[in-house]
């Protein structure tokens, strides 16, 4: 894992099309702005895990005739 330090209003660039910007730092929380193409999905980890779980659950259900 790459670990980078950034201050408010500083950015991180991923590839040619994704930019992360530190919007605000308040206590133990950091607000990030993410600029990515529409075809790139961006989710918080817990939402991503729920989506994966739902997809797995629906694919394991037996087919109904």
Helix fraction bin: 10-25%
* Number of domain modules: 1
Basic shape: elongated
Number of strands: 3
Average pLDDT level: 93
The biggest sheet amounts to: 3 strands, antiparallel
Poorly predicted spans: none
User: Structural class of the helix and strand makeup?
Assistant: alpha+beta
How many whole angstroms does the radius of gyration measure? 17 Å
Count of helix runs: 1
Write down the secondary-structure element order. EEEH
Q: Which strand order do you get reading across the main beta sheet? A: 1-2-3
Strand content: 25-35%
What distance separates the N and C termini?
A: 47 Å
Pfam families: CsrA
Main location: cytoplasm
Family: Belongs to the CsrA/RsmA family.
Protein name: Translational regulator CsrA
In brief, what are we looking at here?
By secondary structure, the protein is an alpha+beta fold.
3D architecture notes:
- This protein starts with 10 loop residues before the first strand and ends in a 5-residue tail after the last helix.
- The radius of gyration is 17 Å and the shape is elongated.
- It is an alpha+beta fold.
- The longest helix has 16 residues, at 45-60.
- The chain is 25% helix and 31% strand.
- The protein has one domain.
- Homodimer; the beta-strands of each monomer intercalate to form a hydrophobic core, while the alpha-helices form wings that extend away from the core.
Keywords:
65 residues, three-stranded antiparallel beta sheet, elongated
């Amino acid at each position: 894992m790459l670990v980078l330090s950034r201050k408010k209003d500083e950015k991180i660039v991923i590839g040619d099309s994704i930019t992360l910007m530190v919007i605000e730092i308040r206590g133990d929380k950091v607000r990030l702005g993410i600029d990515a193409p529409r075809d790139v999905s961006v989710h918080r980890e817990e939402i991503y895990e729920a989506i994966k779980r739902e997809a797995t659950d629906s694919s394991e259900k037996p087919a109904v005739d």
